[in-house]
Amino acid sequence: MKSGFREVRLSELSDIQVEYFIGPSKTVEYCDIMIIKYSGEYGFGSAGNSDAVYMKAMGRAALEAWEPDAVILDWSELKYEWGDMLALALDIDTGCCEPALPMAVVVGPPCEEAVRTLLLGINSEEGLETIEWMFKNKDEAIAYIEKQLQKAES
After folding, report:
1. How far apart are CA 14 and CA 35, in angstroms?
2. What does the DSSP 8-state code read for residue 81?
């Protein structure tokens, strides 16, 4: 009798690559900052739904495994054109049991405009710089996170 079960892997959901980096805060003792870097091509429209689910799952797993005090999502090399589900990847720390972690997102040319319209609306003329936690430069994102950690400490 066959069981009907088949092996599945999270990596089957997406071709997006994920890299993890962790390091100590330079301004707040005993705090670690994690950078989760996503690269590759996010599927267009609903074809990206499984990419979003994968990105969220991999982000949540990293937070569970390393328990950083802050996180930076690096999308600078993520090619993204359209698809509302990408917003799921921002929801890796719900803060349900304690305050949500300080978070920043870094965008680059392959995704900047599409992320802008996702977050601000397709008809918006506002730039991403109007969103406090969005950056085009990783160093600026790190500086923002350091300030957020300092605020949390005081």
Report:
1. 20
2. -
Name the H helices within 1-135: 49-66, 112-120
Beta strands 17-24 and 32-41, pairing class: antiparallel
Residue 104 and residue 73 in contact, taking contact as beta carbons nearer than 8 Å: yes
What pTM value is reported for the model? 0.92
pLDDT digits (tens, 9 = 90+) for 58-91: 999 999 999 999 999 999 999 999 999 999 999 8
The alpha carbon torsion through 123, 124, 127, 130 (nearest 10 deg) reads -150
Q: In what order do the strands lie in the sheet with 32-41?
A: 17-24, 32-41, 70-79, 103-107, 134-135
Token pair belonging to 144: 């923002």
